[in-house]
Design goal:
By secondary structure, this protein is mainly α. Helix content is 29%, strand content 0%.
Length: 49
């Protein structure tokens, strides 16, 4: 329940227009460390045919 309670305050967060625009930008990379990362299940060798 602690985790749930801590998330309730997220409704009070107000993101500015500049932040929303950056998130919605085509090709926006929110986490540069994850750029180019592809889950193993989506790798060609692991996909079902």
């Amino acid at each position: 329940m602690d985790h749930f309670g801590s998330q309730l305050t997220a409704t009070e967060v107000d993101l500015g227009a500049d932040v929303i625009d950056a998130i919605d930008a085509p090709g926006a990379i929110l986490d540069p460390a994850a750029d180019g990362w592809v889950p193993s299940a989506l790798q060609p060798a692991d996909r079902r045919h």
